[in-house]
């Protein structure tokens, strides 16, 4: 009887989640939380919810969700590479006779976050890169290390890049079907095929999965 209760207690455990705080120093980063109703990309909050939903579906063997995470990871990796490369091309923070500290907001905004997915944590790391870069280019322009034209070009490209990552969760969806449904070609699979198109074979056969995709849970 004790063993049964212990087993039931384990089965009743909830999913993992964590709270975090992010200190934001740029106006452009703040706007990601409230982009407006006409924005072609979701807010950070909606992104976190969508990423958690996709991970849950992928864990339950939804190949469409697996493909969505694979594409999301690809876009995220491109964005990380973009910010790292562009940060490295900024003027040095020290010259032969002059050095200066990192520029920060005198009144930064602290965001409290509830994150329940791996891709949510990846997004927070990416937003941190974005925030650092936006502050660095503003500081470099203020200190006459970047021209106004170069500053505006870098700013525009940087904002478009982070928006493209947020938009990615609107491109691919989870379907509610499993790989087993597709192999059986049942009614659910046919409906998913009509709504979302075919799943790439390499994803269906699990040859390609996102590095941060969850372990697939199958009923034995």
Automatic annotation (TrEMBL):
It comes from the Bacteria. This is Integrating conjugative element protein. InterPro entries: AcaB (IPR014996). It holds the Pfam family AcaB. It comes from Aliivibrio fischeri.
